């Protein structure tokens, strides 16, 4: 038996599977995010531990016999978070999250530092870990002086499980401290933000075993003391493992709080100026690239709160068959934007409102705006040489048939809808544990899900949406003029 733990932005999910990947039980619990100031986003690592205990105990209550035969665990989790440990591994302050933008100035300085883009393979985004530590040095110097280890969120859980300070390549690639091509910490990148390699955890591939369950924890949770823990993965790499996106041409589009368009790569091919993320995959000698937009379903949730209508109801009013582009345009930069703009200061806009604009018009505009932003991501990926033959659609937004047909048409790319079942980051983490414990090849374990439906682009509307996308693309420079 194997457990995959996915430390999400809003909660932790655990999945118990057998070696054949049959789902035995699942459990999840939520925790809070604090926003002390505008643009700030923090979580208490103690809440992650409490959630992990709750999930593991619930899995044991659901399937006591299966958990008695637990052999392996791995964690996935939200990336880029700065979890700072001091003497005796004491947590020094709340974790600064991936969607925290306070370090925009520090990120810009690091991004302009010679060799940083070349070695890391990426632009430095405010959400990355290195600028967060630079912000700590500038604004919380007493805490910065006490930092002995920096852990990413899921690695803090792995530390709690094993007592070992470790990380995997895929998660570490999002720090701006890793030489992503060589898959090792870079002294040059670390020194750029006044950090040292002895403050970094030991690096492993995602399938490597990094330790066993702590004896005291195994006793407390009444689990086998022989449980091995694999290094795990950042959430998007774990999701790629969960849907079997390992080789060139494979990929997915994720419609969650943020939006992701991911393409697996067989080689390291960065192009930092595109604002595409180029990261190590969770399996050896593989990489992946992705474009990220900060507000996907978050844009729809914003409209839902504003109109006081359920998001599902808003999309249902559009029907299931795609129509021509609407007259209202929406730029989904509610929290700034990553790909392709790397602009934490930009904000969203609705353009073309008139006296007759309806709720349906606004909903259509929001869905179109997010879809066009994903098209920006596709163009950025293409500029690096990445290839997508099709994309598997995952995430909460993929439940809307209208939205999926819209995205397929805007991207001019078939979207594959998996059959009901498990294929997310928690399964990806469990698959990493299976590979680590059994020695099985990733290609044999990380297979693609069965596909229930393939949504083809609407050939009769592709040209109309191409024209609408061209209009959308021209709006960002004009909007940026307000804050440049």
UniProtKB/TrEMBL annotation:
Gene Ontology MF, one: ATP binding
Domain Carbohydrate kinase FGGY N-terminal intervals: 1-242
CDD domains: ASKHA_NBD_FGGY_EcXK-like
Site for Important for activity, residues: 6
Domain of life where this protein originates: Bacteria
Signal peptide (UniProt feature, chain positions): none
Residues that bind substrate: 79-80
Domain Carbohydrate kinase FGGY C-terminal positions: 252-434
Pfam families found in the cross-reference section: FGGY_C, FGGY_N
Xref: Gene3D superfamilies: 3.30.420.40
PROSITE patterns, per database record: FGGY_KINASES_1 (PS00933), FGGY_KINASES_2 (PS00445)
Family: Belongs to the FGGY kinase family.
NCBIfam families named in the record: XylB
PANTHER family registered for this protein in UniProt: SUGAR KINASE, XYLULOSE KINASE
Protein name as annotated: Xylulose kinase
Gene source species: Shimia thalassica
Lineage of origin: Bacteria, Pseudomonadati, Pseudomonadota, Alphaproteobacteria, Rhodobacterales
């Amino acid at each position: 038996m194997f457990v995959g733990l996915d430390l999400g932005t809003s909660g932790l999910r655990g999945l118990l599977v057998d070696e054949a990947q049959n789902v035995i039980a699942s459990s999840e619990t939520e925790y809070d995010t604090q926003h002390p100031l505008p643009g700030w986003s923090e979580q208490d690592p103690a809440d992650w531990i409490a959630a992990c205990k709750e999930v593991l105990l619930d899995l044991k209550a659901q399937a006591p016999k299966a958990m008695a035969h637990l052999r392996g665990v791995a964690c996935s989790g939200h990336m880029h978070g700065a979890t700072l440990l001091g003497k005796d591994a004491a947590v020094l302050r709340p974790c600064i999250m991936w969607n925290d933008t306070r370090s925009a100035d520090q990120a810009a300085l690091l991004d302009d530092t010679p060799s940083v883009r070349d070695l890391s393979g990426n632009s430095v985004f405010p959400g990355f870990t290195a600028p967060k530590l630079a912000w700590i040095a500038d604004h919380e110097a007493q805490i910065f002086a006490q930092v002995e280890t920096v852990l990413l969120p899921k690695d803090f859980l792995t530390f709690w499980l094993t007592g070992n300070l470790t990380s995997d390549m895929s998660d570490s690639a999002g720090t701006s401290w890793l030489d992503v091509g060589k898959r090792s910490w870079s002294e040059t990148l670390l020194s750029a933000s006044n950090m040292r390699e002895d403050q970094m955890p030991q690096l492993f591939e995602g399938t490597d075993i990094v330790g066993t369950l702590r004896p005291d924890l195994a006793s407390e949770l009444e689990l086998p003391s022989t449980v091995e823990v694999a290094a795990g993965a950042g959430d998007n790499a774990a999701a790629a493992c969960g849907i079997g996106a390992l080789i060139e041409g494979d990929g997915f589009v994720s419609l969650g709080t943020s939006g992701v368009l991911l393409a697996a790569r067989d080689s390291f091919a960065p192009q930092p100026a595109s604002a595409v993320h180029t990261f190590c995959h969770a399996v050896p000698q593989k990489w992946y690239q992705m474009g990220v937009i900060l507000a996907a379903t978050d844009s729809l949730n914003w409209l839902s709160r504003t109109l006081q209508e359920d998001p599902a109801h808003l999309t249902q009013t559009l029907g299931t068959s795609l129509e021509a582009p609407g007259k209202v345009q929406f730029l989904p930069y509610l929290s700034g934007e990553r790909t392709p703009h790397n602009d934490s200061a930009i904000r969203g806009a609705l353009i073309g409102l008139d006296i007759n604009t309806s709720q349906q018009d606004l909903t259509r505009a929001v869905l179109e705006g997010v879809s066009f932003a994903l098209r920006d991501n596709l163009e950025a990926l293409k500029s690096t040489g990445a290839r997508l033959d099709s994309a598997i659609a995952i995430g909460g937004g993929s439940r809307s048939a209208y939205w999926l047909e819209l995205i397929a048409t805007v991207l001019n790319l078939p979207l594959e809808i998996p059959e009901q079942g498990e294929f997310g980051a928690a399964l990806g983490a469990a698959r990493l544990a299976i590979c680590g414990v059994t020695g099985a090849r990733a290609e044999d374990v990380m297979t693609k899900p069965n596909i229930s439906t393939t949504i083809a682009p609407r050939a009769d509307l592709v040209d109309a949406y191409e024209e609408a996308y061209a209009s959308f693309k021209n709006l960002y420079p004009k909007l940026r003029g307000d804050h440049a």
